[in-house]
Structure formats: structure tokens, C-alpha cells
Design goal:
Radius of gyration: 16 Å
Largest sheet: 2 strands, parallel
Order of helices and strands: HHHHEHHE
Shape: globular
Structural class: mainly alpha
Distance between the termini: 34 Å
Number of domains: 1
Oligomer: single chain
Number of strands: 2
Strand content: under 5%
Length: about 120
């Protein structure tokens, strides 16, 4: 019972961080939503079903669970948002070392995104 509560709480925390990640550059939305799906699968079938059917995140969760990939449009949106938010962050940060750290993080995450399989749009 306690473990179920921990999974449920962690899932909702991941949802909250994923939603914050839509606007904040260093909080990536997709991994937090996928973490929430995993936590919900372990702790609450009802919440897992809700997330899989969610109009904003459901398709991404289903694609990941079925094929460990993302649709091209989701990847393109993620790349566009990363470029905008990381560029803004690098412009605002005064120290060269921090700019280089942000650049390294961005390149690493972009590399990871481009290595993921692309799920075709006509897939269920």
C-alpha cells in the first residue's frame, strides 16, 4: 500500500514537472511524462489509463510504450522549443562557462532525440 502511494505521488510530481517543462528550458517535458506513465503503471492503473488517454500527452505515451519512439511532429516541436529556450537562456546568462554548459546539455539532448526511432503518423 505504501509503495503504491509512492508510485502515485512520484507520477503526479513527474506530471507537474513535465508541465513546468513546457516553459522552462532545463526541465524536459517528454521524459517527465514518460516517467509519470511508468509510475502510474506501477501504482495506479486508473491514472495510467487517464494519462494514456490524455489529449495532450496520451499519444506520446502510447507511442513510447508500443515502440520506444516518438512521432516526427513531437520531436520537431521538442527540438524547436529547445532551440528557442536554450538560445534565450544562453543569451541571458552572463558567464561563458554557463553558456558552454547549456550548449553541451542542448547538444546532448538533441543527439538523444535524433537517435530515437520515428513512429509513423498512420500508426495506432
Amino acid at each position: 500500500m505504501v509503495l503504491r502511494f509512492v508510485y502515485l505521488a512520484a507520477g503526479w510530481l513527474a506530471i507537474a514537472l513535465g508541465i513546468l517543462g513546457i516553459a522552462l528550458p532545463l526541465l524536459p517535458t517528454t521524459p517527465f511524462i514518460l516517467l509519470a506513465a511508468w509510475c502510474f503503471a506501477k501504482g495506479s492503473p486508473r491514472c495510467h489509463r487517464w494519462l494514456r488517454q490524455n489529449r495532450w500527452f496520451g499519444q506520446m505515451v502510447r507511442d513510447w510504450e508500443n515502440s520506444r519512439g516518438l512521432r516526427r511532429r513531437y520531436r520537431n516541436r521538442a527540438v524547436a522549443m529547445m532551440l528557442v529556450t536554450f538560445s534565450l537562456s544562453m543569451w541571458l546568462v552572463p558567464r561563458l562557462g554557463l553558456k558552454l554548459m547549456l550548449l553541451a546539455i542542448m547538444v546532448a539532448v538533441l543527439g538523444y532525440l535524433y537517435r530515437l526511432p520515428v513512429v509513423e503518423e498512420d500508426s495506432p
